[in-house]
């Protein structure tokens, strides 16, 4: 046996030897959370009145009943804009320019969401999108970090990045004009949502925005946007034959739990502490439209229904500018600059939730150092809203319990390192 293989097996054995203790701590933490059945004081459900939902459903049903054919194809944005007055067209073009300027990459999108929320705190979806997009950023940069490159070649990493980037880009180019149009409506003191077709937004959103303009139900609007955006990427990403073949139906994607693509974390304390408690959730089947929608609704209920999560996430968003690096979340474990050149052979660094003595932090680059900005072709403009299947998601939601996920995050990181060590030993 070579020295390299001998060293690799020893590191793997050491990692496995420590695993039972870390697993026991993890299970104790999960059991403790399950046995603790008291909700945090101040926890609130995310409720929308049945009357509001009923009114929106009626309008949506009228749309479907008046439509002809089975597939609803929107009038092209260009055709719609030809009928606009000069003032409306100028406003639409301004929103277009702002959206394209800020849709450069994950960092610019994530910051744009946050600033939208700061300007209009009633737009709860903007803060939710900001926090979820932060997680998406380090899913992208993980592909160029110290761990995942040992589990996949550069071609697979590139394809997975393109998949994540495309979904991130699509959601922004559909949702951000809606947020800006609301801001313009506030500025002008009247609803401007008749302009939504200029951005090829689904018909589904017009009654929801009009209802929000009248009753200011942030919960109703947020749930509506979650439903819309997940349907929007369903037909353009998850059901697209290219992405199904290259990503969704691959073994790499099916073990997404190993890659932590199915986890979203919200910090619950000021950043800078060694152990920042995290709230979060795991979606079991990312490829399932229903699971993604319910996942999004539960994340929203957590972010706006649980005081410690809401306060912690807001403090974090304000204090720590998004870079895409995991160092934003775990500065004691990750660094944006390598202290030493990347090693061809990985050496164990983790002991549970801590680095081994004298071990260097994991390299986690900022997004702008990991990936260049991408150019995307214009998306399909057909409307997903062709039947009443989305109506079943239009209901209130309770904050999930348990929601503390600090141990889950570290357990996941240890699983990745274990997989890397196993791969090294078997080479």
Q: Ranges with pLDDT <50 over ≥5 residues?
A: none
The value of Rg in angstroms is 23 Å
Shape: globular
Portion in strands: under 5%
How far apart are the termini? 11 Å
Q: Kindly report the oligomeric state of this protein.
A: single chain
Structural class: mainly alpha
Succession of helices and strands: HHHHHHHHHHHHEEHHEEEEHH
- Estimate percent helicity: 55-70%
Number of domains: 1
Largest sheet: 2 strands, antiparallel
Question: Order of strands in the sheet with the most strands?
Answer: 1-2
Total DSSP helices: 16
Q: Would you summarize the structure shown here?
A:
With 427 residues, the protein is mainly α.
Features:
427 residues, mainly alpha, two-stranded antiparallel ribbon, 4% strand
Task: Please give a structural write-up.
There is one protein chain. The chain is mainly alpha-helical. The chain has one domain. 57% of the residues lie in helices and 4% in strands. It contains 16 helices and six strands. It has helices spanning 3-35, 50-66, 77-82, 86-102, 106-119, 124-141, 154-188, 205-215, 218-238, 241-248, 251-254, 256-259, 289-305, 307-319, 367-370, 406-426, and strands spanning 263-267, 278-282, 334-335, 350-351, 354-355, 362-363. The strands form three sheets. Strands 1-2 form a two-stranded antiparallel sheet. The chain has a two-stranded parallel ribbon with strand order 3-6. Strands 4-5 form a two-stranded antiparallel sheet. Strand 4 and strand 5 (354-355) form a beta hairpin. The longest helix is centred in the middle third of the chain and has 35 residues, at 154-188. The chain is globular and about 65 Å long. The mean pLDDT is 87.
